[in-house]
Design brief:
The protein is α/β, with parallel strands linked by helices. The protein is built from eleven helices and nine strands. It has helices at about 15-20, 40-45, 50-65, 70-80, 110-130, 145-155, 170-180, 195-205, 210-215, 225, 230-235; strands at about 1-5, 10-15, 30, 85-90, 95, 135-140, 160-165, 185-190, 215-220. It has a four-stranded parallel sheet with strand order 8-7-6-9, with helices on both faces. A hairpin with a 2-residue loop joins strand 1 and strand 2. The longest helix is centred in the middle third of the chain and has 22 residues, at about 110-130.
């Protein structure tokens, strides 16, 4: 799988290059040259897979051969090693909770996946070149991005992180998340707004002298390794649970689903299902009870979860 710049479609780079660079030299965003289609077998057997298996199968086409299989499996396992409960809101509405990660933010998944990919690529690069030059991740935050990046990149070998945040404009919990880790995480409090922080980051990337002195990249959401793993959520919520209005599994007669933001017409309000090019096959409606165990088929659904206390 290669990626091209949205400003210049003729430019092609690997997942590794897109992750390390963050943004194309022409300031364009990197985008996959094609959108992989998962086979029917995947949806036929999705209830038998662990979350790690699901995430690995979903992300593998996007990483190509830039990561060995075992390394990618390790990265995926460390990325999603917390719960993603699907809990009832009403009889016909369910919610996939995304706040059970270490910083209580949905961005934990993207930050953890990117940090581990980048750490592997830097180690690989330094081994080939025979040096130990670190890469510096520069991030502006209004709160949740910085906390997730700080936690995700904490103690990742070969990666230094610098986070800029506006003074007095993040919560006390978020400020603690940014400023108390130490080691390879540095947080700078800026007198100004988030826009000021963002402009400082942009100026740094545009500074040729600084670029020569430091190996810079960004961990904001422009990086493919940040936003691609967020598609895991849609697969973790699929298949949807049975409801009083739709007690049976979806059948092959259901309308074809072509967008990750659309729901089957058979039951309005369903969680968005993954992007596929044909109708999803019939499958049991089963909950995901564990991130490491195959899904158990049965009628008992978990009770609503309460938010985790911050630690």
């Amino acid at each position: 799988m290669n990626y091209y710049s949205l400003n210049n479609p003729s430019t092609r780079v690997t997942f590794k290059e897109a992750t390390i660079r963050g943004q194309a030299p022409d300031k364009g965003l990197y985008f996959p040259e094609s959108i992989p289609t998962l086979p029917k077998e995947f949806f036929d057997n999705i209830s038998q897979y662990s979350r790690e298996d699901i995430a690995f199968r979903v992300i593998r086409p996007f990483t190509g051969d830039t990561l060995p299989e075992q390394e990618l499996r390790r990265i995926v396992a460390e990325t999603i090693n917390f719960d993603f409960p699907l809990v009832p809101v009403t009889d016909n509405t369910w919610s996939l909770e995304l706040f059970h990660g270490p910083t209580l933010a949905f961005k934990d998944v993207g930050a953890r996946f990117m940090s581990r990919c980048l750490g592997y690529f830097v180690r690989e690069k330094n081994e080939v070149q025979g040096n130990d030059r670190p890469i510096t991740v520069l991030v502006a935050t209004s709160g949740d991005t910085g906390g997730a990046v700080a936690s995700g990149f904490y103690d990742i070998e070969g990666v230094q992180v610098v986070i800029l945040y506006p003074s007095g404009k993040v919560s006390s919990v978020q400020e603690l998340q940014l400023t108390t880790l130490g080691k390879n995480i540095s947080a700078l409090e800026v007198e100004g707004s988030f826009d000021d922080c963002q402009q400082m980051v942009k100026d740094a990337f545009a500074d040729p002298v600084l670029q020569q002195q430091l190996f810079l990249t960004s961990a904001n959401s422009i990086n493919v390794a940040r936003w691609l793993p967020q598609q895991f959520y849609y697969f973790f919520a699929w298949p949807p649970p049975p409801t009083p209005r739709n007690p049976l599994p979806l059948s092959s007669a259901s309308p074809a689903v072509t967008s990750a933001t659309s729901a089957p017409a058979s039951w309005p309000g369903a969680p968005a299902c993954p992007s596929v090019t044909s109708s999803p096959p019939a499958m049991p409606m089963t909950p995901y009870r564990s991130s490491s165990q195959p899904v158990n088929t049965g009628p008992n659904w978990p009770a609503p979860h309460s938010p985790m206390p911050w630690t």
